[in-house]
């Protein structure tokens, strides 16, 4: 089958996974001696997902992807791209572990992509290019991360974790990705994590300024290349280090297009796409697509035929504005009930439990270590031996 210039390519299946444990930010606020509204209102965050010691980006990624593969012809999946900034090995791609856990075919390319929170979007666009060349093939794109900052730092309440998996194909059932995009790269130091640090370093106010300025730059190019206006976008999704930044971004974008929106109007416009992130926290590469899942699951009106604007931002920085058209009948193919069940069945941690988990250090002595079993998804990190991570399927 030869590719067509009119071929529709995009997201054929999508799902997300997050830890089964969380800390309420009211608990954190009380322990840190501050008003919880600083987090609930100021950041727009209510809870942060906390991974147990036997959960990492590999187990979360595999747990997000597994349900998408039910009924799929796995032989058609020829590419797995894993966007993350929480890498577990300087050499071996985290996606190779996922490939094995999912029993994907050996005839498959697997690559890990790193550019802060932008990695999954890079994977999405690369996957589309592959399907254009070989329309019979499919690609699995994953974003998975664990956001960690120093205890009692300004970034602490924006921690979280999660993974999103997407199957990319021709004639997708959920969203067709449109070809036009606005791109922006600038060498800045707004957020970084050197190899010798477990926790990220962030200049929060500066990062917000760069995020917003990059939004306008990418939108300008997107509007020029697509010849679309603000009014051609029906709903909006943003990268969400914290949900309040999406409110600021939408206000800024509207103003740049000569539209004056109140904060209440913006919150009403974005609310459906913010809910999941508000109660899971920052998931870096996954967060834009957690927001997309939230919008698809929670929007009361049928989004079939609607254009969704998506803004992806990775500190350092790389940004992209692009759009997609939701396909008629998409609701038959999304995982709303499973996502709600996951979020409603989580276990709340005490502050002491949160700090105990935070202060655990991954063994680096090369000896054999077996990890206690906590509540996880279908996969868990069972231990480590001779510096080799050992994963297992949960019965």
Largest sheet composition: 9 strands, mixed
Percent in strands: 25-35%
Mean pLDDT: 97
The shape, in one word, is: globular
* Alpha carbon gap, first and last residue: 41 Å
Structural class: alpha+beta
> Could you name the ranges where pLDDT drops below 50 across 5 or more consecutive residues?
none
Rg, Å, rounded: 20 Å
Give me the number of helical elements. Answer: 11
**Count of strand segments:** 17
Kindly state the percentage of residues in helix: 25-40%
Order of helices and strands: EEHHEHEHEHEEEEEHEHHHEEHEHEEE
Strand order of the largest sheet: 5-4-6-7-1-8-13-12-11
Structure report:
The protein has 395 residues and is α+β, with helices and mostly antiparallel strands. It is built from eleven helices and 17 strands. The chain has a nine-stranded mixed beta sheet with strand order 5-4-6-7-1-8-13-12-11, with helices on both faces. The chain has a three-stranded mixed beta sheet with strand order 3-2-14. Strand 4, helix 4 and strand 5 form a beta-alpha-beta unit. Helix 3 crosses helix 4, helix 7 runs antiparallel to helix 8 and helix 8 crosses helix 9. The longest helix is centred in the middle third of the chain and has 23 residues. It is globular, with a radius of gyration of 20 Å. The N and C termini lie far apart (41 Å). The relative contact order is 0.20.
Main features:
395 residues; alpha+beta; 9-stranded mixed beta sheet; 3-stranded mixed beta sheet; 11 helices; 26% strand; globular
């Amino acid at each position: 089958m030869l590719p067509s210039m009119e071929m529709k390519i995009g997201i054929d299946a999508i799902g997300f996974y997050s830890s089964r444990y969380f800390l309420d930010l009211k608990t954190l606020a009380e322990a840190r001696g501050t008003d919880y509204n600083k987090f609930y209102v100021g950041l727009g965050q209510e809870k942060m997902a906390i991974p147990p010691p036997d959960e990492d980006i590999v187990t979360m990624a595999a747990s997000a992807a597994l349900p998408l593969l039910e009924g799929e012809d796995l032989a058609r999946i020829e590419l797995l791209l894993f966007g993350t900034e929480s890498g577990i090995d300087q050499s071996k791609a985290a996606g190779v572990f996922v490939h094995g856990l999912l029993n994907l075919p050996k005839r498959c390319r697997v690559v890990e992509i790193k550019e802060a929170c932008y990695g999954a979007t890079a994977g999405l666009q690369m996957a589309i290019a592959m399907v254009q060349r070989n329309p019979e093939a499919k690609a699995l794109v994953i974003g998975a991360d664990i956001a960690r900052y120093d205890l009692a730092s300004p970034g602490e309440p924006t921690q979280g974790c999660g993974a999103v998996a997407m199957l990319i194909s021709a004639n997708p059932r959920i969203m067709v990705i449109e070809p036009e995009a606005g791109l922006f790269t600038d060498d800045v130091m707004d957020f970084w994590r050197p190899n010798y640090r477990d926790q990220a370093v962030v200049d929060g106010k500066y990062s917000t300024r760069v995020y917003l300025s990059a939004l306008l730059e990418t939108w300008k190019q997107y509007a020029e290349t697509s010849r679309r206006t603000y009014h051609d976008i029906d709903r909006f999704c943003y990268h969400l280090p914290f949900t309040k930044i999406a409110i600021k971004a939408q206000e800024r974008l509207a103003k740049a297009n000569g539209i004056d929106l109140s904060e209440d109007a913006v919150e009403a416009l974005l609310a459906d796409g913010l809910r999941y992130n508000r109660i899971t926290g920052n998931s870096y590469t996954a967060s834009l697509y957690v927001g997309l899942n939230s919008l698809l699951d929670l929007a009361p009106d049928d989004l079939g035929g609607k254009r969704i604007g998506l803004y992806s931002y990775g500190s350092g920085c790389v940004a992209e504005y692009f759009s997609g058209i939701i396909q008629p009948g998409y609701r038959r193919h999304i995982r709303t009930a499973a996502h709600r069940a996951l979020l409603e069945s989580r276990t709340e941690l005490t502050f002491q439990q949160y700090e105990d988990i935070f202060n655990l250090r991954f063994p680096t002595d090369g000896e054999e270590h077996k990890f206690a079993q906590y509540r996880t998804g279908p996969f868990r990190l069972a231990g480590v031996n001779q510096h080799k991570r050992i994963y297992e399927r949960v019965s």
